Structures are given as structure tokens and as C-alpha cells.
Amino acid sequence: MAHTVFCVRYKKEMEGLDEPPFDSEFGQKIYKNVSKAAWSEWVDRQKMLLNEYRLQPWTPQAQQFLVEQMDMFFFGEGSALPQEYVPPSQ
Fold it and tell me: Cα torsion at 23, 2, 14, 71 (round to 10°)?
């Protein structure tokens, strides 16, 4: 049986992640409250942030920034887009 959660992003019961994304208390919080669909949204947002801010993901500063943005994305008022960000035209 699939792991289900009440997703904090979609505000409904949905399929959860297969395992916690991090080996930490924050990873457990995400595992218990974030759906696969919401996590997929975050992965796309994270890629955009990495590219727009030209972050080096292996640096502690970039990692801390991404964790702060992730916390706001799921549990705060949402992660803000960079001021200069222009969504790709489709």
C-alpha cells in the first residue's frame, strides 16, 4: 500500500514520498506532510533557483538558502521568485 499524506501544498490526501528526502528532522517533516506531486513542483522550483541565482549546490551557503526556500515553499507563505525571473514562453 502506498504511503499517503495530507499534503500541505494541495490540502488533500495524496500519495506521499517513498522515503524521507533527508536524514534529518526536516526530512521527516517533509515525508509526513508533502505529496509526490508537491515534491515534484519543488524540484522544478529548486532547478529554477539554482539557475537564476547561479548557485553552486555543494556549497553550504547554497544548501542553507535552498532549505530556507523549501521550508517557505511547503510550510510558509511560499518561495518567492527572483525579481528578474521571466518564465519560459510555451
Answer: 0
